[in-house]
Amino acid sequence: DTAVSQTPKYLVTQMGNDKSIKCEQNLGHDTMYWYKQDSKKFLKIMFSYNNKELIINETVPNRFSPKSPDKAHLNLHINSLELGDSAVYFCASSQWVDSYEQYFGPGTRLTVT
Amino acid sequence: AQSVTQLDSHVSVSEGTPVLLRCNYSSSYSPSLFWYVQHPNKGLQLLLKYTSAATLVKGINGFEAEFKKSETSFHLTKPSAHMSDAAEYFCVVTPRVAGGTSYGKLTFGQGTILTVHP
């Protein structure tokens, strides 16, 4: 059983399009995260939700909108995609908001052409 | 504010020889520190964590790390490298903010790619 899963694994799209990435965790965790890993492998947190409530919102363009329909799911919708959005996006979860151990999904490689 | 510097972008060792991956941190608060490993095309897996208990921390797959406050370091070591250790390793810091929560805000280093030769 996959603990944290993401779909799709690969996403190739053109500039200006709107796309979504989905994340699901079956660990019963309360908190979920989205990270962006750029071409230099640098990982940076984007958002965090705890029990469907947004608790971390880093300096991310408002073209990025997370949505958490329930605490097991955290989706990421991106409007008007730009070349600079090309990256690997990782979803993660942790048991509570102040649990240090985070479990990561396999990543979604987004390529914008 | 906190930051992490991984001193080597690439480390190459022979199978059976020791591994040393270096990490220095800065943090405005007492830190919690972690090492994560990322195998090719896979997600990140937690190797070990330091959260203010023993300064020498043992993790999975024979890895360990020592928290040295005076040197602001948290280097990752393994006595004998195995081919399966080849991966990218990330040192991570999060502040243990007064009040007990940091809201899971991890700050990642730039990563160190470990290559293991037969």
Outline of this structure?
By secondary structure, chain A is an all-beta fold. Chain A has strands at about 5, 10-15, 20-25, 30-35, 45-50, 55, 65-70, 75-80, 85-95, 105, 110.
Q: What this model shows, in words?
A:
The complex is a heterodimer of chains A (113) and B (118). Chain A has 113 residues and is an all-beta fold. Helix content of chain A is 0%, strand content 56%. Chain A has a single domain, classed as Immunoglobulins (Immunoglobulin-like, Sandwich), CATH 2.60.40. In chain A, the strands form two sheets. In chain A, strands 2, 4, 5, 6, 9, 10 and 11 form a seven-stranded mixed sheet that branches. In chain A, strands 1-3-8-7 form a four-stranded antiparallel sheet, with no helix packed on it. Chain B has a single domain (2-117), classed as Immunoglobulins (Immunoglobulin-like, Sandwich). In chain B, the strands form three sheets. In chain B, strands 2, 5, 6, 10, 11 and 12 form a six-stranded mixed sheet that branches. Chain B has a four-stranded antiparallel sheet with strand order 3-9-8-7, with no helix packed on it. The interface between A and B is medium-sized, with 26 and 24 residues.
Structural topology:
The complex is a heterodimer of chains A (113) and B (118).
Chain A: E1 4-7, E2 10-13, E3 19-25, E4 31-37, E5 43-50, E6 53-57, E7 64-70, E8 73-78, E9 87-94, E10 103-104, E11 108-112
Parallel strand pairs in A: 2-11
Antiparallel strand pairs in A: 1-3, 3-8, 4-5, 4-9, 5-6, 7-8, 9-10, 9-11
Chain B: E1 2-6, E2 10-14, E3 19-21, E4 23-27, E5 31-38, E6 44-50, E7 56-58, E8 64-68, E9 73-78, E10 87-95, E11 107-108, E12 112-117
Parallel strand pairs in B: 2-12
Antiparallel strand pairs in B: 1-4, 3-9, 5-6, 5-10, 7-8, 8-9, 10-11, 10-12
The CATH H-level homologous superfamily of chain A: Immunoglobulins
Domains of chain A, number: 1
CATH topology of chain A: Immunoglobulin-like
CATH class of chain A: Mainly Beta
Would you identify the regions of chain B where 5 or more consecutive residues have pLDDT less than 50? none
How many domain units of chain B? 1
CATH architecture of chain A: Sandwich
* Cα-atom radius of gyration of chain A: 13 Å
Q: Order of SSEs of chain A, N→C?
A: EEEEEEEEEEE
Estimated radius of gyration of chain B: 14 Å
| Number of distinct helices of chain B | 0
